[in-house]
Amino acid sequence: MEEQYCFISDSSIRTLLSGMNVNNSTEGQVLRCAEVIRQGGVCVFPTETYYGLAVDPFNEVALHVLFQVKGRPELKPVLLLVADRNQLKMVTASVPQVAIELMDRFWPGPLTLVLPARPELSPYITGNTGTVGVRLSPHPVAAALLKTCGIPLTATSANKSNGKPAVTVGEARSIFGSQVHCVLDGGRSPGKTGSTLVGFQQGKVVCIREGSVPFPDILQAVRQVE
Asked: With the CA atoms of 121, 140, 205 and 161 taken in that order, what torsion angle do they form, in degrees rounded to the nearest 10?
């Protein structure tokens, strides 16, 4: 699939985007990239941490291409973004109460919650762990893309496996060239660190990866709601 921009003439999507914090130029980019993703393509897009690579997580062929593009080892889980909490039911089997409390405190934001996955979710996403990492991004361009697509999207960082993630469109193009099928420009991303990953064991919050949200803040939030 060559890099392309297939324009969508969908008035309902345009109405949706007009209410979000995106300008007319970005609106057109979002519409085109959403169509590329629907066709099974790989899209570079901005988040509140780094640029990411978005594909349809329910398209096994697109997931395979994503892993090839990144040179990512199989069975290494891929994180997802959701447009809103309602989309959690598309990828998660259950959501513990403590996770809901953390969503109330830290979403949208760079906190990824590792939750029980729906059994039909691809092993490309779960890494055969039975879990899936999800978060809600505050980045307006990422939010617009997710709303337009209407499904969760992969959000693995825009880099080759073990390489430095891209923080600008120029860096992403330098890394991937024609291996990706569309690029959504959202300006420079913060690029300081990735999202914090937390999981849940027997009702307790555990830190899987330190990131943008300090783990002590997460523990403090949990203590405050207990």
From this structure: 60
The CATH code of the domain that includes 55 is 3.90.870.10
Under DSSP, is residue 67 helix (H, G, I), strand (E, B) or coil?
helix
Phi, psi of 126, rounded to the nearest 5 degrees = -90, -20
Range of the domain at 78: 11-225
Measured distance CA(12)–CA(19) in Å, rounded = 11
pTM across the whole model = 0.88
pLDDT tens sequence across 131-140? 999 999 999 9
**Residues 165, 25: contact at Cβ < 8 Å?**
no
Tokens of 14: 């345009």
Write out the DSSP string of 13-53.
HHHHHHTSS--HHHHHHHHHHHHHHHTT--EEEE-SSSEEE
